[in-house]
Design a protein that fits this description.
The chain is α/β, with parallel strands linked by helices. 34% of the residues lie in helices and 20% in strands. It has 13 helices and 14 strands. It binds N-carbamoyl-L-aspartate and zinc ion.
Length: 366
């Protein structure tokens, strides 16, 4: 039910062109409330800020389980959900389990029966932040994955191989060939989300696959490429995993959202880290986009001339993939320049958000 209000007709076109195709500028955009299908909220005191940032725009969020210790069973997920719910923001957390070499079929059945655990997250061990307890060899997870296939429970994958000899920019492509295709051949009915895709190969794989594969796209991978990360000096606040790739890959991701293929949907991968942990000799991976997430996507969609496709991407495709109804309320964005704060203070830590200090052209209405 997207609704765009057009008010500002540009006058610089010849009348004949104007008559055929009046160029217009939208000034207000009302969407079915979106959801975030990939989110890191962390735990403890910071929850009061991270949950609120997401709740002001999103109805539901898939909550990543890479806490320390990781959320590996239903009891832990239930307790974590209670800490999120205690923030009383209205955000509905959809919990996930962290898959390990030891996750059993019974663990999956218990999680599924709980009704609160909606998916299971596969981190190849060592692939990213807090992934040391992840899966060391795919075969170790076959029993759990077979049960997920049987129950229709989605497997969310961090799609990177971790072999030391594989170049960091080639790790996603390597994962498709050596892990993902064999996994889907073995479990052809599995619902699988290829999380935060970063490459042309991943976009093409999702678009052409005959399996039940979806993919989330982050604001940073749509907005930036590795030149933004590295030219003129290292920008630690643009460092996330999978790492930003070359501009042709960024373009392929932008083309994927332009295609309107319903397998692509919103997942911010918003992941807060303290400023000192990122601006460090060994800076950690993750971009905190939650404070401006829907506005960042709106900016990209406007640049691409596809604002009318934002609602499907942000609010419809994700629920459809997960077999859930769309939200029944709406949010409204207005065309208004505003600046993303240069820094935020969260539970005593300074966090530099994605696009800090940049001017955005769409603003969420309170
Ligand atoms: C995430 C985090 O900080 O938890 N970091 C990141 O770079 N994306 C983990 C993840 O999703 O890979
Ligand atoms: Zn993530």
């Amino acid at each position: 039910m997207w609704r765009i209000i057009f008010t500002d007709y540009k006058a610089s076109f010849s009348p004949s062109i104007l008559a055929l195709e009046p160029p217009m500028t939208a000034t207000s955009l009302t969407l079915i409330q979106p959801d975030d299908w990939h989110l890191h909220l962390r735990d403890g005191a910071v929850l009061s800020r991270t949950v609120a940032d997401t709740a002001k725009q999103f109805g539901r969020a898939i909550i990543m389980p890479n806490l320390t210790p990781p959320v590996t069973n239903t009891a832990m997920a239930t307790e974590y959900k209670a800490r999120i719910d205690a923030q009383a923001t209205g955000l509905m957390p959809l919990m996930t389990l962290y898959l390990t070499d030891h996750t059993s079929a019974d663990d999956i059945r218990t999680a599924h029966a709980s009704g609160i655990v909606k998916a299971v997250k596969l981190y190849p061990a060592g692939a990213t932040t807090n992934s040391a307890a992840g899966v060391t060899a795919m075969a170790n997870a076959y029993d759990a994955i077979a049960t997920m296939e049987e129950l229709g429970m989605p497997l969310l994958v961090h799609g990177e191989i971790t072999h030391a000899e594989v170049d960091i920019f080639d790790r996603e492509k390597g994962f498709i060939d050596s892990q993902l295709i064999p996994l889907l051949e073995r479990f052809p009915k599995l619902n699988l989300v290829f999380e935060h895709i970063t490459t042309k190969e991943a976009a093409e794989f999702v678009q052409s696959s005959s399996y039940k594969v979806g993919a989330t796209l982050t604001p940073q991978h749509l907005m930036y490429n590795r030149n933004h990360l590295l030219v003129g000096g290292v920008k630690p606040h643009l460092y996330c995993l999978p790492v930003l790739k070359r501009n042709t890959h960024q373009q392929a991701l932008r083309d994927a959202v332009v295609s309107g293929n319903p397998r692509f949907f919103l997942g911010t991968d918003s992941a807060p880290h303290a400023q000192g942990a990122k601006e460090s000799a060994c800076g950690c991976a993750g971009c905190y986009s939650a404070p401006a997430a829907i506005e960042l996507y709106a900016q990209v969609f406007e640049e691409l001339g596809i604002l009318h496709k934002l609602e499907a991407f942000a609010s419809l495709n994700g629920p459809a993939f997960y077999g859930l109804p769309a939200n029944d309320n709406t949010i409204t964005l207005v065309k208004q320049d505003w600046q993303v704060p240069a820094s935020l203070n969260y539970a005593g830590d300074t966090i530099i958000p994605l696009a800090a200090g940049e001017t955005l052209h769409w603003k969420l209405q309170d």
